[in-house]
Amino acid sequence: FSFLFTHLPRFLLQCLEDLDRNLRQLNSRLFVIRGQPADALPKLFKEWGTTCLTFEEDPEPFGKVRDHNISEMCKELNIDVISAVSHTLYKLERIIEKNNGRAPLTYNQFQAIIASMDAPPQPEPAITLAAIGRAVTPQCDDHDDKYGVPTLEELGFETEGLKPPIWVGGETEALARLERHLERKAWVASFGRPKMTPQSLLASQTGLSPYLRFGCLSTRLFYYQLTDLYKKIK
Questions:
Q1: pLDDT digits (tens, 9 = 90+) for 12-44
Q2: What residues does the Photolyase/cryptochrome alpha/beta domain cover (predicted)?
Q3: pTM reported for the whole predicted model
Q4: Residue 77 included in any domain
Q5: What does the chain look like in DSSP terms, one character per residue?
Q6: What CATH number should be reported for the domain holding residue 63?
Q7: By residue range, what is the domain housing residue 48?
């Protein structure tokens, strides 16, 4: 029964491992920081001589408070802060603002508001070695010990007898699923719901929900690839 609580942490760790592998191909690495942001970041700012902090805006209440506190800390330390909206296609506050300060309560109302707004920005191009140029990520010999992706065991989860994952985490898997998803042109064209069978409860080879939810797949990339395909079919 405890294995039920292991699937999500394993998925998230696989996402980090996949990101680290992709960064290695760009002569860089992923730095996984352990501890509370308010405690860990000031020490790293000093150690690394940080001059700019960038992050994705979190629309959740807890995340907004955390991000505000960290941003205020950076101001005191004369560190520039750049934040961007990428979890969603639109900035949620902008949608509420367009609806006279209230959240839309129906899907039709939501669609009407979106129709009056500019289209979401195009997805950013994939990072390449050519784009990075001569930029180098300093790494220490004990990088894996200090900043490596933790294991399930390290986080206190049981792994003995754990079955292979149904959902494999990471952008690499997400992009492969997106390609398979877009190959289903008839379904994309009709936007219909697939017929439900007992097998529908199992993970689909084209399912994208967890990858969108946890940032493995760009919402803009998905939106524009789906939109472009829909235009071609129609």
A1: 999 999 999 999 999 999 999 999 999 999 999
A2: 1-89
A3: 0.86
A4: yes
A5: -GGGGTHHHHHHHHHHHHHHHHHHTTT-------S-HHHHHHHHHHHHT--EEEEEPP-SHHHHHHHHHHHHHHHHTT-EEEEE--SSSS-HHHHHHHTTTS---SHHHHHHHHHTSPPPPPPPPPP-HHHHTT------TTHHHHHSPPPTTTTT---TTPPPPSS--SHHHHHHHHHHHHH-HHHHHHTPPPPP-GGGGSPPTT--HHHHHTTSS-HHHHHHHHHHHHHHH-
A6: 3.40.50.620
A7: 31-86
